[in-house]
Amino acid sequence: MFNLLFAAIISCSFLLVACEQEDADEQQMYNTSGNASGAQQNPPVSTTATGTLTGTYNASTNVWNYSITWSGLSSAATIVELRGPASVGVNGNLLTTLTISAPGINGSASGSVTLNESQETSLLANQLYYTIVNTTYVTGEIRGQIIASSQ
């Protein structure tokens, strides 16, 4: 009888620990940020334009919400690209384009993207970046590395 009771208690303990770990993984949230400049482009671009990204990433849903603002571009933004995986100063592949909500030389982009497993790994390793493209700089006038930090 004692052995049966002991086995039941141990089994319940393992189940509770497993559930708690799963809940922690599902609720893991990250803040994302990144400042953009022409100096971060590869090759660097001489510009006074700047950009700022803020956002959140939910590891349980794989949804990344972003908000990007920029100012001082040489011409109106035509595309905002999410690229990677790549370290600072290294070019990465185009992963997706991001929705521009207010186009212009001063503007913004905001929305959400569902990341796949490899994109999530790259995001959490700070290996993704965004580039703001326009007709003057068709490969991007400014670039910002995206930094993810646990909330």
Q: What would your notes on this structure say?
A:
This protein has a single domain, classed as Immunoglobulin-like (Sandwich), CATH 2.60.40. Helices cover 22% and strands 45% of the residues. It has helices at residues 2-26, 117-124; strands spanning 29-37, 50-58, 63-71, 77-84, 93-98, 100-102, 107-114, 128-134, 142-150. Strand 4 (77-84) and strand 5 form a beta hairpin. The longest helix has 25 residues, at 2-26. The N and C termini lie far apart (46 Å).
Question: Key terms for this structure?
Answer:
9-stranded antiparallel β-sheet; single chain; Immunoglobulin-like; globular; alpha+beta
What are the SSEs and their pairings?
Blueprint: H1 2-26, E1 29-37, E2 50-58, E3 63-71, E4 77-84, E5 93-98, E6 100-102, E7 107-114, H2 117-124, E8 128-134, E9 142-150
Antiparallel strand pairs: 1-2, 1-9, 2-3, 3-7, 4-5, 4-8, 6-7, 8-9
